[in-house]
Amino acid sequence: MPDSQTIVDQGSIAYPFTGTASGGSGESGGGQPAPQVPDSAKTLGILAFAAMVSTLGLTYVFMKYGGDYGVE
Is 17 exposed, middle or buried (0-12, 13-18, 19+ CB in 10 A)? Predict the structure, then answer.
């Protein structure tokens, strides 16, 4: 079969292969653009990450230094 008739399986959708194997056709792009993430979502992700890291840090400190203070 010629390359233009070859079917490339991508998940559950089959696309006809129309390019070359090396991709040297000179065209730029052709795919879908990457999804944009809003700034508020980025800020929320950073804050959530900082909360998880601080929780792990506090857990380490309490496990290492917390505990029995000689109270009877």
Answer: middle
- Contacts for 5-9 with beta carbons within 8 Å, 24 or more apart? none
The C-alpha atoms of residue 8 and residue 12 are separated, in whole angstroms, by 11
Question: Between these two residues, 32 and 51, which has the higher pLDDT value?
Answer: 51
Residue 66: per-residue pLDDT: 83
Residue with the two structure tokens 């390359």: 3
Q: Return all residues near 14 (Cβ < 8 A) that are at least 6 apart.
A: 7, 8
Closest CA to 31 of 6, 12, 10: 10
The token duo for 61 is 């400190």
What single string gives the DSSP state of each residue in 40-52?
Answer: HHHHHHHHHHHHH
